Amino acid sequence: MTRRAYVTLVTNADFALGARALIRSLTLTGTTADLVVMHTGGVAADALDLLSRLGARLIPVDLLDTSPAFNAAHDRAALHGRAPFTKGSKPAFHTPLDNFAKLRLWQLDYDQVVFLDADTLVLRNCDRLFDYPEFCAAPNVYEGLADFRRMNSGVFTARPDPATFAAMMDRVDAAGAFWPRTDQSFLQDYFPDWHGLPIHYNMLQYVWFNLPDLWHWPDIHVLHYQYEKPWQAAHARSAALAPLTALWHAYAGDGPVPVAADLPPPT
């Protein structure tokens, strides 16, 4: 075990599919860090075994011990009713309350962590991020300049510490607490002076068709499949995102993956 790790969270069979491609992508970058999958009770043993055989360290975690009022407010139907997603669609397997288990990484036995959502691919080595301070994240850019006001919690740097975790638990479930974008809203509130990473460390897939001038394959370190997922059979954005979906399937398989110079530009 090293003292630094890339960490992801898997809460169901669908995100286990994503984690398989993510773990393979990290391995192909030649990273020297540990590859850690935190998993809750919603993942079958055979799916976890596959991740272990790919080199991941499996760490079981519980969902946060939050109050009934908190759980009701962050139930999928209640949360989307109060703060609907209007820019894209969330798949049926997306369970907002599960997202808060991400905070368990502050309990891990590592000095430095880079967290990656299970719907990301790492296309270039990112080990330099372990030397970045807590808390670094990229802005939530995928539509326009206004996006720079918010950060995206799909990729961030952290320093595990039980004291930090305890302080987070005191705040996350305070009376009347409501986090409209779950862990993302909470983490931006907890770390209001977050350090901004370049968007290339968390390139959201909607940039492909909304802001194509920002898309430059050689610069992209992490590609994040926000909203619709590349393993979904079909969705409203399937045609627009077809090249990115094909790239994900290359990483999810066992064959060669394309190099940046061979990938098509946005059209």
Beta content comes to 15-25%
CATH topology-level name:
Spore Coat Polysaccharide Biosynthesis Protein SpsA, Chain A
By secondary-structure content and strand pairing, the structural class works out as: alpha/beta
Helix run count: 8
CATH homologous superfamily (4th level) name: Spore Coat Polysaccharide Biosynthesis Protein SpsA, Chain A
Main beta sheet strand tally, sense and closure: 7 strands, mixed
Number of domains: 1
Name the poorly predicted regions. none
Q: Helix and strand succession? A: EHEHEHHEEEEHHEEHEH
Second-tier CATH architecture: Alpha-Beta Complex
In angstroms, what separates the terminal alpha carbons?
Answer: 44 Å
pLDDT averaged over residues: 94
Reconstruct the topology from this structure:
Elements (H helix, E strand, L loop, with lengths): L3 E7 L2 H16 L5 E6 L5 H9 L3 E4 L7 H6 L2 H7 L29 E5 L3 E3 L13 E4 L11 E8 L3 H11 L10 H8 L4 E2 L6 E2 L2 H4 L11 E3 L17 H11 L15
Parallel strand pairs: 1-2, 1-4, 2-3, 6-8, 9-10
Antiparallel strand pairs: 4-7, 5-10, 6-7
Q: Which tags fit this structure?
A:
single chain; 267 residues; alpha/beta; Spore Coat Polysaccharide Biosynthesis Protein SpsA, Chain A; three-stranded mixed β-sheet; 8 helices; 10 strands; 27% helix
Write a short abstract of this structure:
The protein is α/β, with parallel strands linked by helices and 267 residues long. It contains eight helices and ten strands.
Can you describe this structure?
- With 267 residues, this protein is of the alpha/beta class.
- It has a single domain (4-262), classed as Spore Coat Polysaccharide Biosynthesis Protein SpsA, Chain A.
- 27% of the residues lie in helices and 16% in strands.
- The protein contains eight helices and ten strands.
- The protein has helices at residues 13-28, 45-53, 68-73, 76-82, 162-172, 183-190, 207-210, 242-252; strands spanning 4-10, 34-39, 57-60, 112-116, 120-122, 136-139, 151-158, 195-196, 203-204, 222-224.
- Strands 3-2-1-4-7-6-8 form a seven-stranded mixed beta sheet, sandwiched between helices. Strands 5-10-9 form a three-stranded mixed beta sheet.
- Helix 7 (207-210) links the parallel strand 9 (203-204) and strand 10 (222-224).
- Helix 1 (13-28) crosses helix 8.
- The model has no long low-confidence stretch (mean pLDDT 94).
